[in-house]
Amino acid sequence: MTEGITTPGAGWRRADGPPAQKREKRRRRRGGGGRRGEVLMVEEAEFTSYYGRPIIKPPVWKTPDVPLYLFLGGAAGSSSIMAALADLTDRPALTRNSRYVSGGAAIASVVFLIHDLGRPQRFLHMLRVFKPTSPLSIGSYILAPFSAAAGATAAVELLGWFPRLKRFGGVVAALFGAPLATYTGVLFSNTAVPSWHAAHKELPFVFGASGMAAGGGITMAISPIEEAGPSRKMAVTGAVVELAAMHRVETEFGIVSEPYHEGKAGTLLRAAKSCTAAGAALTVVAGRRRAGAVLAGALLAAGSLLTRFGVYEAGMASARDPKYTVIPQRERLAAREAGQAAAQNGHAPSVTR
């Protein structure tokens, strides 16, 4: 009755191998780098989690609410900056359209966030505490003034009231635009999710640049060609930075970069890369023609949206599989032990290049 539980190795399993009882039963270590004459009477612990269950608890965020919130927030933030720049350089149509995109995307992002939270009161409760060490708390105090300023500016622009007020609101929204587009990357990387946490330096650049590509592409597509020069530059710059930063995320972090290539996340990110690269190239080649601008803007927006879904799915996959938690921990432990052994022997550990 209890054999499956009490038999050594029957329940604890490795994330990257067979049950412990099927591997060698005893390892001996004599002399050399260990203690002289020491004999291991039991095998080294190789298990990761009980029956392969997750070690960390995956986030309880909803799909598609959170990825859509990420996409809309990035597009809103970059569009608010574009609106301020267009206003300063006397581009009335680009200013107006950028304000509409910024205000509409900001309000929509708040709707998706509240839907993910479940009740509007929960968003208001997030504003009851200001905690500088919490990206979520800081993000709440970025989103609230930004969405209010961007939404009010878009409404005033639509109604044609108070031109000085809409310029003031546009400046306020632009000041919060860049933090809004990037704080979600900081929020993701501040979690224990392995594939997000490992890329803590890169994700803010990925999210910020993706927002630039989306905002620049959308405002380019709906604005007159002769005024859309800044949008084209923003779109191409954002696409190039996004592709470069995302390449680092996908290749520089060993096993925790694996979820970005596999399964649903891999499919989404490959499609995102294709859309973003094609949109940037088309902007350069045909962005000064109406059909080219519309198609390029649609491709850039689609690439940005797919990037958010792909990064989200990759992180959730790494949280569900215990090997992405345990194997990096073992690698860090082995490196630390090697460093300590080298220090005891009086020389620094060799570095493999």
Quick structural gist:
With 353 residues, this protein is mainly α. The protein has helices at 3-6, 65-88, 92-117, 120-126, 135-159, 163-189, 194-197, 203-222, 229-251, 263-286, 290-320, 323-344; strands at residues 12-13, 49-50. It starts with a helix and ends in a 9-residue tail after the last helix.
What does this structure look like?
With 353 residues, the chain is mainly alpha-helical. It has a single domain, classed as Formate dehydrogenase/DMSO reductase domain (Formate dehydrogenase/DMSO reductase fold, Up-down Bundle). It has twelve helices and two strands, in the order αββααααααααααα. It has a two-stranded antiparallel sheet with strand order 1-2. α2 (65-88) packs across α6, α3 packs across α8 (203-222) and α5 packs antiparallel against α6 (163-189). The termini are far apart.
Features:
single chain; 353 residues; mainly alpha; Formate dehydrogenase/DMSO reductase fold; two-stranded antiparallel ribbon; 2 strands; 1% strand; globular; disordered N terminus
Helix-strand makeup class: mainly alpha
**Spatial ordering of strands, largest sheet:** 1-2
CATH topology: Formate dehydrogenase/DMSO reductase fold
Q: What is the name of the CATH architecture?
A: Up-down Bundle
Total strands: 2
Q: How far is it from the N-terminal to the C-terminal residue, by CA?
A: 53 Å
Mean pLDDT: 86
Which regions have little confidence, pLDDT < 50, spanning 5+ residues?
Answer: 1-36
Name given to the CATH homologous superfamily? Formate dehydrogenase/DMSO reductase domain
CATH class designation: Mainly Alpha
Oligomer: single chain
Largest sheet: 2 strands, antiparallel
Envelope shape:
globular
Report helical residue fraction. 55-70%
Cα radius of gyration in angstroms: 25 Å
Order of helices and strands: HEEHHHHHHHHHHH
* Strand portion: under 5%
How many domains, in number, for the residues? 1
Number of helices: 12
